[in-house]
Amino acid sequence: MPLPVITIAQMREWENSTWAAGQTETEVIRRVGECVARQALELTRPSDLVLILAGKGHNGEDARAAREGLASRRVEMLEINDPTAQFGRLEELLALQPALLIDGLFGIGINRSLGPEWTSFIERINSAHLHVLAVDVPSGLDADTGHPQGAAIKASTTLTVGAPKVGLLQEVAWPFVGRLTVAEDVGLVSCPCKSELQWAVPQDFNDFPPPRSVGTHKGSYGHLVIVAGSQGYHGAAVLAARAAQRAQPGLITLYTMENSYTPVASQLQAVMVSPWHAKTDLQKWASAVLVGPGLAAADVPEQLKSFVRDIWLTSPLPVIADASALDWLPPRAVAGGATRVITPHPGEAARLLGTTPQRIQSNRWQALRALSAHYGNAWVALKGHQTLVGRGANGLSYVNPSGNPNLAQGGSGDVLAGYLAGWLAQPAVNSNPLTALRYSVWQHGATADALQRTRPNWVVEDLIDQIGNQRLTAGAETAKS
Questions:
Q1: pTM above threshold 0.90
Q2: Is the domain defined by 218-471 classed in CATH 3.40.50.720?
Q3: Dist. CA 225–CA 291, nearest whole Å
Q4: Per-residue pLDDT tens for 122-166?
Q5: What are the sequence ranges of the domains in the chain?
Q6: Class of the CATH-defined domain 3-192
Q7: What are phi and psi of 370, to 5 degrees?
Q8: In what helix (H) or strand (E) does residue 459 lie, and over which residues does it extend?
């Protein structure tokens, strides 16, 4: 089950329900410490030096509890009550250049701006440019708003307890949070809190994709039609088609502009390739249509743009619009509630809504809802850090935890569009588009994470080669005890 994204008040309510049920704070702290230690072991090597900074509150107790699980590492711990008096000792420990610093100074209870002595202490830590693991929340960060309280630790990884806090997902918090992970199973009772914003976990996809029957054939798994590629942008069509193959629909036909037919067709084998003509009936045998990748050339004909508008409004098939095709969509409801999907990045989303990328990023959740409403309750995958998936004004939206900054390279979006279209073309899948979308986004990011661990200079072609191979525990953003 996905985790609710919660406020500080909801976290306090959850803790109080746990204590009322008979669980002890001591046991929860012990289990949080185990999760912190396990995360620290993943981030370091045997005999590395780990520096633990522990404050006087519960956050400090969580950090102290991690020490027992770090027997294979060299550990130094600095318990801090007076930052001014202990500044010199901090300097001595930083001079040892620890491989990891565990931040347990302040938790979610901080409710005022830090004084100058704490500001100087935190700024000195940040200036050391160490790999930092923050416990629950980077010290000094408001977990509701995401704003620093005068100063905040800049963590590389934040291991938050129980469920993500809403402030940690704000754009203003990203430089401090780093990669957000969740210590999910720490002895708390089932979360009593509700949220319309949900944090995805890999176990959400335990029943996806559905198993294939032994008596089936390629006709059982749909026929994806892709309209993509123009002169100078033919590579996007190839990337989308190859990624779609990884979802294993029964058949794929790619229609491309006539002047890009040769370079596209020469790079594909199992995918059928044809030049696009205005009279071609693309829907006659299709079970889903993807339009947009690589259709950025100035000579893309108006007839194609009209075709996109027509199928968006009238086709009973799932239609996925990406890249240039987003600009051709009519902002109206579609016939019969057919599945419609758009996959904008923040810049495209801003253009579609007549605003700026900065405003999109400042409230991605509301931007997703506005996009969905603008295009007739379409499903939206708002790409970027922590890609959002959802639709409508009142439904749940899902934050994807997988992925890393190295997805920011040309062609990455074409891969995602092709891969998710390959799933939505399959009759056994397209009745549940939300799961297919969320799974595709998670696999896309988890594949990038797996590549980053083994091959830091990976390219988009490597992403296509590996997408779909990630097990449901690979790239997981949860820490189990």
A1: yes
A2: no
A3: 9
A4: 999 999 999 999 999 999 999 999 999 999 999 999 999 999 999
A5: 3-192, 218-471
A6: alpha beta
A7: -65, -40
A8: none
